[in-house]
């Protein structure tokens, strides 16, 4: 391997966006090109990591280059490689403000640089010339905010094909839906295999300033409830039910417009059977990781088997795919839904398939449960707090469903729905695996929800 490849192989496993943590590498290779050769120079690299289990992933790594160490960028330092005139110092270009300007310069110019193609949407102003500030809280991607105008999201893991976030926002642009932030452009890179379509590298979207994310607002409401020992959820000043109802309306509005501008198809018996089989397969895999799931195993299998036999009508369409309170923003004018790429861990082709809107509804209902119960982790044996958490969750779940149903009268959200209950349970099983591996003390949250879902309450 080259010095550059060695450097990247040492640095990547420590990055939050790298999805191969804990897996054994078989080999690594990279190819790159310069996107800008001013000072600092900006290069873009595709790093292909092959694992001993036979799988391969490709990551996008932009680097900025300096001839001397930059003390103010110590936290972004990647490494140094020898050059003809001494050491060249490489930094994470997404955290080097001086190296963030070229992305929008090329987008405005609709440039092609090497294998990379820049596609402006041509619908709004792009703040050319501004540096971008990195958002430090992201997991699988990296985003830069340019002033209060635009946000660039870099997709770290590359897959051939158009990213659903770009595809869906481009389609929704025709509807003028007020619950999305408009797409301003996107960037693609040609695959090294000419038979494969280009991969989406990044997208530029209108930035939503002065907004609060749904998770923070919801958990603030829960804290208000816990602080008022003698009041019910509907009596507390921070009652969130009105917002939950409006969020339901916004979600239904986005679903309706997705059905207008992207393909739909009625679900057939094979689809119901496939959904049930996938849920059961995930359950069996989860049981090997989370022994505490065993007490719910038979009830969950029966719940999933009911999906294969249900006569609930479903019109398949494009959906969000990973909807929860952290994916929505509350502005002065209403709710904005973000991040339509689906679950990043799933293959891109699977994320572009049609599905039922009930999957998104179930994801949001699970999020209300998490918001209500996250503080129970600190006091798991407090029955008064547990009662209040359940009361808050039920009030806001009901309000969300009421708002959704009012805006989408042809879709009935009922606790009797085998599909909705199964999608909630499937999500909770996924959460059990995540918590067991990452936050074992949080495992009680999805497990308690499974008790409710499998009991029919």
Automatic annotation (TrEMBL):
InterPro entries: Kinase-like_dom_sf (IPR011009), Mak_N_cap (IPR040999)
Primary enzyme class: transferase
Pathway where this protein functions: Glycan biosynthesis; glycogen biosynthesis
One Pfam family from the record: Mak_N_cap
EC number: 2.7.1.175
GO MF annotation list: ATP binding; kinase activity
UniProt keyword annotations, A-Z: ATP-binding, Carbohydrate metabolism, Glycogen biosynthesis, Glycogen metabolism, Kinase, Nucleotide-binding, Transferase
GO biological process: one example: glycogen biosynthetic process
Maltokinase N-terminal cap domain segment(s): 11-96
SUPFAM superfamilies: Protein kinase-like (PK-like)
Swiss-Prot/TrEMBL catalytic activity: D-maltose + ATP = alpha-maltose 1-phosphate + ADP + H(+)
Family according to the record: Belongs to the aminoglycoside phosphotransferase family.
Assembly and binders: Monomer.
Full protein name: Maltokinase
Species, as recorded: Modestobacter italicus (strain DSM 44449 / CECT 9708 / BC 501)
């Amino acid at each position: 391997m080259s010095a550059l490849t060695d450097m990247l192989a040492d640095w990547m496993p420590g990055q939050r966006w790298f999805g191969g943590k804990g897996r054994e590498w078989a080999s690594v290779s990279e190819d790159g090109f310069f996107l800008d050769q001013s000072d600092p120079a900006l290069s873009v690299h595709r790093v292909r990591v092959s694992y001993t289990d036979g799988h391969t992933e490709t990551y996008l790594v932009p680097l900025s280059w300096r001839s001397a160490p930059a003390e103010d960028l110590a936290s972004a330092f990647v490494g140094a490689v020898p050059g003809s005139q001494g050491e060249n110092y490489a930094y994470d270009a997404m955290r080097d403000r001086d190296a963030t300007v070229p992305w929008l310069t090329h987008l405005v110019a609709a440039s092609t640089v090497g294998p990379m193609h820049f596609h402006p949407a041509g619908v709004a102003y792009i703040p050319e010339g501004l540096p971008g500030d990195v958002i430090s809280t992201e997991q699988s991607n990296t985003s830069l905010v340019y002033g209060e105008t635009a946000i660039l999201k870099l997709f770290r893991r590359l897959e051939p094909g158009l990213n659903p976030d770009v595809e869906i926002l481009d389609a929704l642009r025709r509807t003028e839906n007020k619950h999305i932030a408009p797409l301003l452009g996107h960037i693609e890179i040609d695959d090294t295999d000419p038979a494969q379509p280009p991969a989406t590298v990044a997208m530029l979207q209108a930035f939503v300033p002065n907004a609060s994310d749904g998770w923070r607002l919801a958990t603030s409401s829960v804290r208000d409830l816990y602080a008022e020992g003698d009041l019910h959820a509907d009596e507390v000043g921070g009652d969130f039910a009105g917002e939950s109802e409006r969020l339901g309306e916004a979600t239904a509005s986005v679903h309706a417009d997705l059905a207008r501008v992207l393909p739909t198809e009625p679900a057939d018996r094979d689809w119901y059977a496939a959904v049930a089989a996938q849920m059961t397969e995930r359950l069996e895999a989860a049981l090997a990781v989370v022994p505490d799931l065993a007490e719910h195993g038979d009830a969950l299998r029966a719940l999933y088997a009911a999906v294969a036999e249900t006569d609930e009508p479903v019109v398949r369409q494009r959906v969000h795919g990973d909807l929860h309170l952290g994916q929505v923003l509350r502005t002065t004018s209403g709710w904005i839904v973000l991040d339509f790429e689906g679950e990043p861990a799933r293959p891109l082709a699977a994320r572009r398939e049609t599905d039922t809107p009930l999957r998104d509804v179930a994801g949001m209902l699970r999020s209300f449960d998490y918001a209500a119960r996250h503080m129970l982790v600190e006091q798991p044996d407090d029955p008064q707090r547990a009662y209040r958490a359940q009361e808050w969750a039920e009030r806001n779940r009901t309000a969300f469903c009421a708002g959704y149903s009012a805006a989408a009268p042809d879709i009935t959200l009922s606790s009797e729905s085998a599909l909705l209950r199964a999608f909630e349970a499937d999500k909770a099983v996924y959460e059990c695996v995540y918590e067991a591996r990452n936050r074992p003390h949080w495992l009680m949250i999805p497990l308690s929800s499974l008790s409710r879902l499998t009991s029919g309450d």
